[in-house]
Amino acid sequence: MLFNLFNSMPSVSTQELEAKLTEKPQIIDVREPNEFIGGHIPGAKNVPLRKAETYTPKGKVYVICQSGARSKRAATILKSKGYDVVNVKGGMSAWSGPTRGGKL
Fold this sequence. Notes:
Helix content is 32%, strand content 15%. The chain has five helices and five strands; from the N terminus they run αβαβαββαβα. The protein has helices at residues 2-6, 14-20, 33-37, 69-80, 91-94; strands spanning 11-12, 26-29, 45-46, 61-64, 85-88. It has a five-stranded parallel sheet. The longest helix has 12 residues, at 69-80. It is globular, with a radius of gyration of 13 Å. The N and C termini lie far apart (41 Å). The model is unreliable at 1-5 (pLDDT under 50). Pfam families: Rhodanese (PF00581).
């Protein structure tokens, strides 16, 4: 039990992430480009799950997808490489903050 406790993935709710937007956190959205274009968090970078293995964040990074499943996988990959990663629970399905349709 303790082993899992120390290896658990840090996570935040979409409301907690929204409260941090003024700090301009590094956010990666691991959905596919067509999903990202349909609406994403302002300032988020599109890094599809298939590219998470080669992504190099600078400092703490928040990972989001549509529901939370892909972001958890991507966060696990990045954390295993030693990065400071936070998974966003519920994903864009739970996001009620500002969104932007956008560019890649």
